[in-house]
Amino acid sequence: MTSTTRDRTPPTEAVAGLLAALAIFTGGLELVYRPFRLAPVALVLALIATVMSREQPRIIPLAYAIIGVCFIAGAALQIITHHPLF
């Protein structure tokens, strides 16, 4: 009789993935609401996900890229439309 062993993902990896997804969502919100307030929050979430994870090779760098691009685009949109930056 053979038993199949399932490779289970550790809970820290699941939480790190959720934090990275939340960082991406927060980074996307920078386009529509005050990027100088949301960028630090998104970066802290991405940094925590980076420290917690060792098996998330794609989503965490993607989170940093989205946060950076949305910060620049959001700041430009806020300046063009004469809305407050922070």
Short characterization:
Helix content is 69%, strand content 0%. It is an all-alpha fold and 86 residues long.
Task: Describe the overall structure.
Helix 1 runs antiparallel to helix 2, helix 1 packs parallel to helix 3 and helix 2 runs antiparallel to helix 3. The chain has three helices and no strands. It has one domain. The chain has 86 residues and is mostly helical.
Approximate helicity band: 55-70%
Q: What is the end-to-end distance?
A: 64 Å
**Uncertain segments:** none
Number of domains: 1
List the helices and strands and how they pair.
Layout: H1 11-29, H2 35-52, H3 59-80
Helix pairs in contact: 1-2, 1-3, 2-3
Q: What brief labels describe this structure?
A:
mainly alpha, 69% helix, 86 residues, 0% strand, 3 helices
